[in-house]
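Memo to structure team: turn this sequence into structure tokens by end of day. - J.P.
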Amino acid sequence: MGSRREATGQLRTHLNSLETTPCNDRCVVSNVLQPMKNHYQQSCFLLGIPDMRNAPADSGAEVAFAGRSNAGKSSALNVITGQRSLARISKAPGRTREINFFVVRDNLRLVDLPGYGYAKVSKAIQKQWQQNIARYLETRQSLCGVFLLMDIRHPLKDFDQMVLRWCNAADLPAHILLTKADKLKRGAASAALLQVRRQLQELHPGSSLQLFSSLTRDGADAARAKLDDWLGITEEDLHGLTGPVGDT
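Reply from structure team:
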């Protein structure tokens, strides 16, 4: 806990120093669901909280999705879970203002953190978001890893680097989705992947990364495999999976 608190204090300080800029880009998710069997399709919305006072019980395991407001978090969550509207997609990035919890099964959850970088809100709201994110990362004992989403064309912005440094200092796994990979040709996307991988040696040597596209759904299987690993979902578990919380 000590390392988390210290690392989160640095993250909070850094968030307060960042300038936000308008984000007009967006990622559109296809209405076609994954054709393959996807056990995350049974995920369902649990609750959204403005602060940690009303958070669900801190037990089991959960993976947080973090990223700048235009990184395509909502679209990625929908593609990974094979659902059209599990996470709300807006034409204006940055509309996720609460910490949203989704139940995968039993005591396993996905958590959508507010996107950072959207300027069309008051400074008071921006400060509240920053405090909520920092408090969540500092105190949540069931947090077993962070999915950090970055637009492949604009990777490793200040916020991204700070989250990675925090995860490294807190000894928390991080997995990076380089989103909107369809916006680049294959060679350029591969070059971007290699460049980010080199920079990760300094920021978080133990982190992993992959290409991802919500439009083509490329990378969805790999993302689900990483979630399975972190959440401890095995093939044996899947044989008995018939529904979300409480179902057997």
